[in-house]
Amino acid sequence: MVAMQQLLLLFLLLLLHLKALMNNWRNEPESWTGSTDPCTSWVGISCSNGRVTEMRLASMNLQGTLSNAIGQLSALKYLDLSNNQNLGGPLTPNIGNLKQLTTLALNSNNFTGGIPPTLGLLSNLFWLDMSANQLSGQIPVSPGLNQLVNTRHFHFSENQLTGPMSESLFSDKMNLIHVLFDNNQLTGPIPAELGSITTLQILRLDNNKFTGAVPTNISNLVDLNVLNFADNQLHGTMPDLSTLTKLNVVDLSNNSFDPSAIPTWMLTLETLASVAIASGGLHGQIPNRIFTLPRLQQVILSNNAFNGTLDMTGNITQQLQQVNLLNNRIVAANITQSYNRTLVLVGNPVCLDPDFSSSRFCSIQQDSATSYTTSVTHCGSTSCSSDQSLDPANCGCAYPYMGMIFFRSPLFADLRNNEHFQLLEASLSTELGLQPGSVFLSDIHFTSDNYLQVQVRLFPSIGTSFNLSEVTRIGSDLSNQNYKPPQGFGPYYFVADPYVHFAGAADGGKSQVSTGAIAGIAVACGLILIAVTSGAIFSLLQKRRTRELSGRTNPFENNEIGSGSYGKVYKAVLVDGTNVAIKRAEYGSKQGAVEFKNEIELLSRVHHKNLVSLTGFCYEQGEQMLVYEYVSNGTLRQNLQARGIYLDWKKRLRIALGSARGLAYLHELADPPIIHRDVKSTNILLDENFKPKVADFGLSKLVADTEKGHISTQVKGTLGYLDPEYYMTQQLSEKSDVYSFGVVMLEILSGRLPISNGRYIVREFRMAINPNDHDYYGLQGIVDPAIHDAAHTARFRRFVQLAMECVDESASRRPTMNSVVKEIETMLHSEGLSSGSSSTVEFEHVGTASTSHPHSGEVVTAH
Ligand SMILES: *[C@@H]1O[C@H](CO)[C@@H](O)[C@H](O)[C@H]1NC(C)=O
Ligand SMILES: *[C@@H]1O[C@H](CO)[C@@H](O)[C@H](O)[C@H]1NC(C)=O
Ligand SMILES: *[C@@H]1O[C@H](CO)[C@@H](O)[C@H](O)[C@H]1NC(C)=O
Ligand SMILES: *[C@@H]1O[C@H](CO)[C@@H](O)[C@H](O)[C@H]1NC(C)=O
Ligand SMILES: *[C@@H]1O[C@H](CO)[C@@H](O)[C@H](O)[C@H]1NC(C)=O
Ligand SMILES: *[C@@H]1O[C@H](CO)[C@@H](O)[C@H](O)[C@H]1NC(C)=O
Ligand SMILES: *[C@@H]1O[C@H](CO)[C@@H](O)[C@H](O)[C@H]1NC(C)=O
Ligand SMILES: *[C@@H]1O[C@H](CO)[C@@H](O)[C@H](O)[C@H]1NC(C)=O
Q1: How far is the CA of 196 from the centre of ligand 2 (A)?
Q2: CA atoms within 13 A on the CB side of 682
Q3: Which of 327, 616, 681, 699 could pair with 636 as two cysteines, CB 3.0-4.6 Å apart?
Q4: Nearest to 655 by CA among 736, 589, 749
Q5: What gap in Å lies between CA 15 and CA 197, rounded to an integer?
Q6: What is the b/e burial string over 574-589, where b = at least 16 CB atoms within 10 angstroms of the residue's CB?
């Protein structure tokens, strides 16, 4: 009783929830299909107390949609699905159930539809990144994002968000540091309340359709480093930014501000590194002062109406790399001799002056210096094969781990500045645990969305390639923002190239269910009490309460669908609507933890379309349960008996073939081989297409390492199907299953039970067979009337003969399951029917070659 109270629905809820997610995904990591233990063996999954707390699945090439079932993982703190470009579809409102979430990164995918207002419920959220999707509609408010007062990061760049930003989206209760809504289609004014979030450091609203004046409240944002309002339809006076004394990057280009002289803050903010006001309606003389701002790297003032003389004399700041004055009205220029960096004066009257027109400043292409690239000149002339690269640390050739880092809003503009990028190299090698100097940076440039793109090559410390665990570690540190770049680089995202040159054997696919994991899973089983809200499981819970009260009711009884040697079988419906069958061990068949663990481990590796697959399990003291896929059409026995259902000869042949294939797989391809020990018509289930699936295997003795090929064991099985030789000698072998299968074949022929009215089907057939009877082979009184038509064919006779060979008294004279398969295939071919495969025997292994599934269109249910 006490055990029941504690351990009622003890199956692997956690695994089932993850499987519900996976049902909507393709391409999941190999370790997920090779093991039933998510908490210890699945890449990217972390658990605490048997509940999933982290899913770090960035850049995994996952495909599909995000299932509603995500909402069941209510202990989740960290959810990163970023950069799986083929992950899409709408975002489920159930994300709002994940109240523990601190990080939600769904960026760089193909999610569509609106931002669910339920995101506002994520009161612990620190990091929210939805950038680079196809999200549309208005930003939800009350309920919605305005509730996220603890969130520091709003990253919504590069979507298709529309409508005005509600004034109540922002408030002084918020603690945002990054607000990125650039590259959307937002309209209306910029909300003045933004000015009340004084924690803000980066504000990007560029590339939208904002209108109206910039609210004066912006001047309250005294910690702001980046302000980008470019490419909108803003009106009114140019905002006064003079109080923003930490500004590094400002872009107000391509708006419709009132014409004005250069704003004074541009001359006083000594922190400025990059200023852009292209097409800003500016006029008058450009003050010399701007070129002396101590940190200035870039000034873009193209397409304005600056006139007079350009004065670039005196103490021009050393960092200044680029001055763009394209298309202004500058008539003369006095430029210090030593200024050897970029200055564009094309489109100004001064370039029509014959004395000046030959100046390099009158041509766009004056940029000889390129952006930074890691130097390998110390390596001399070493060259590597095309898929390897030179490791700057040791000048050797190796297979680097490569990818692109996109910095969304760096605080600098100068891409030739060694200092920034050498700091980045040093920090990458230190933080990622690589040898100093084993980082190669190249192809550094700003993208059209104004992100800084850097190609990164990272080199292995030992040998010429990384092993899988290293690649996983480094990739996830970069993809999941664990790696913090040096100051000035700001928020980033990482896009990895696939890595294929793994060192040694793959070390990530091995599945191991540890005792610790089982303990963890056992705790997870308790989750169902909270999580399950509908279907049969819920009704079980209700009954449990009844039972606790009455002390007598069996909570499972109304859902029972069968029973086997191991225990009773119940049907249940998971919250996502998936039907499952739960098999609950009876007291006598319970095993110790180690044995149970071993069997689960083995069964979870057995995958064949003609075997019922195990999808979950639960183990706790006093309670053992197994969760299987639900096969809808009942047992072969029920189908043979039900008069309403017509199993014709061809269907029967196909059922025999499929079942034989399942058994042949167990005998010959399962590792170690498995003897079913209880083959019978009630253990062959039929799916909605009458495809057979053999059930109840493996909860029996596995074929141990015996030299004789058989093992001595207590006799087990069902009367009528039992191999007489095994019964007498207690020596079990695969041939015992062959005998039982022969009995099933006789059932298929006759529709009769193996033992009825005191008569044994094997003996009945043996006595009746008459080769001289050309119509019925002597079996007129025995063969099921439903298949009388077939009885005169050679195939029919061969089928009978094959069945009789299987039930031969002597095990050594019985065929193997494999030859049974081949025989039945031949019969089907001569019936002019496809046997379902061009190869003679079809087998599948779990976890291998999932891409080249031999049966397109036929789904292996458990992944
Ligand atoms: C993303 O979705 C759009 C339609 O919404 C589709 O056209 C495009 O092919 C998808 N991209 C990927 C990589 O799946
Ligand atoms: C501007 O900011 C101040 C102080 O942060 C705030 O009290 C005021 O309501 C804001 N004005 C508007 C129109 O939001
Ligand atoms: C401003 O608009 C022009 C022309 O549409 C475009 O080429 C330029 O990139 C824009 N500038 C910025 C800073 O967005
Ligand atoms: C420059 O432009 C301003 C205003 O547009 C004008 O007042 C001034 O006379 C111009 N200066 C020169 C030298 O053309
Ligand atoms: C130029 O700047 C340097 C340091 O920034 C300073 O030491 C020097 O006095 C300045 N010279 C002039 C002429 O302003
Ligand atoms: C250029 O500027 C320098 C320093 O301000 C000044 O001495 C010189 O006369 C100027 N040249 C012209 C042509 O204006
Ligand atoms: C510009 O001149 C400085 C010295 O005044 C020199 O150090 C630097 O390399 C030069 N840069 C380019 C791009 O020529
Ligand atoms: C993978 O490589 C790292 C570093 O070279 C090493 O420490 C680790 O033991 C390797 N792991 C495996 C499973 O080989």
Answers
A1: 6
A2: 15
A3: 681
A4: 749
A5: 42
A6: bbbebebbbbbbeeee
Does the beta carbon of 826 lie inside 6 Å of ligand 4?
no
Tell me the domain boundaries of the chain.
Answer: 384-486, 525-629, 636-862
At 366 the pLDDT is: 61
Q: Residue whose CA is closest, atom 13 of ligand 4?
A: 308
Is residue 780 classed exposed, middle or buried when 0-12, 13-18 and 19+ CB atoms within 10 A define those classes?
middle
Among 469, 473, 510, name the best residue to mutate to test ligand 8's pocket (greatest count of ligand atoms within 8 A of Cβ).
Answer: 469
The DSSP 8-state label assigned to residue 163 in this structure reads E
Give the number of the atom of ligand 1 that is nearest the alpha carbon of residue 110.
1
Q: What's the pLDDT tens digit per position in 15-66? A: 667 777 777 888 777 777 766 677 777 888 888 877 889 998 888 888 999 9
Please count the CA atoms within 13 angstroms of the CA of 859 that sit on its side-chain side.
10
Least trusted range by pLDDT, from 199-203, 344-348, 555-559: 555-559
Per-residue pLDDT reduced to its tens digit, 202-240: 999 999 999 999 999 999 999 999 999 999 999 999 999
Binned at pLDDT 50, 70 and 90, residue 537 comes out as very low
Per CATH, 384-486 and 525-629 having the same topology is answered no
Percent composition of the chain: helix, strand, coil (DSSP 3-state, to 5):
30, 20, 50
Cα-Cα-Cα-Cα torsion 827, 832, 837, 838, nearest 10 degrees, comes to 100
In angstroms, the CA 457 to CA 476 distance is 15
CA of 263 relative to ligand 6 center, distance in Å: 25
Architecture of domain 384-486: 2-Layer Sandwich (3.30)
End-to-end CA distance of the chain: 35
pLDDT in tens, 821-862: 999 999 888 876 655 543 323 222 222 222 222 222 222 222
Please give all residues whose beta carbon lies within 6 A of any atom in ligand 3, as ranges: 230-231, 251, 253-254, 276, 278-279
Which amino acid belongs to residue 66? L
Whole-number Å distance, alpha carbon 133 to ligand 1 midpoint, is 10
Peptide bond into 263 cis (omega under 30): no
Question: 465, exposed or middle or buried, with CB in 10 Å at 0-12, 13-18, 19+?
Answer: buried
Name every protein residue with a CB atom under 6 angstroms from any ligand 7 atom. Answer: 338, 340, 369
Average pLDDT score over the chain: 81
Q: Is the CB of 427 under 6 A from ligand 6?
A: no
Return the ligand number nearest the Cα of 294. Answer: 5
Q: Give the residue, by CA position, lying nearest to ligand 5 atom 3.
A: 315
Q: Which fold has domain 636-862?
A: Transferase(Phosphotransferase); domain 1 (1.10.510)
Residue 622 DSSP class: T
Residue 629: beta bridge partners? 580
Nearest CA to ligand 1 atom 12: 86
Which ligand is the nearest neighbour of the Cα of 302?
A: 3
Question: Which residue, judged by its Cα, is nearest atom 5 of ligand 3?
Answer: 254
Closest by alpha carbon to 78, among 128, 118, 22? 128
Which is higher by pLDDT, 775 or 189? 189
Residues 643 and 807: their CA atoms lie apart, in Å, by 27
> What strands, in cross-sheet order, belong to the sheet with 63-65?
25-26, 63-65, 86-90, 110-113, 134-137, 160-164, 185-188, 209-213, 233-235
Q: How far apart are CA 523 and CA 536, in angstroms?
A: 21
Which residue among 182, 477, 678, 687 is the active-site one?
678
Please give the pLDDT value at position 844: 26
Q: Ligand 5: which atom is nearest the Cα of residue 315? A: 1
Known catalytic residue at 678? yes
Question: What fold does the segment set 525-629 form as a domain?
Answer: Phosphorylase Kinase; domain 1 (3.30.200)
Q: Note the pLDDT tens digit of each residue in 314-368.
A: 999 988 989 999 999 999 999 998 898 889 999 999 999 999 989 999 987 666 5
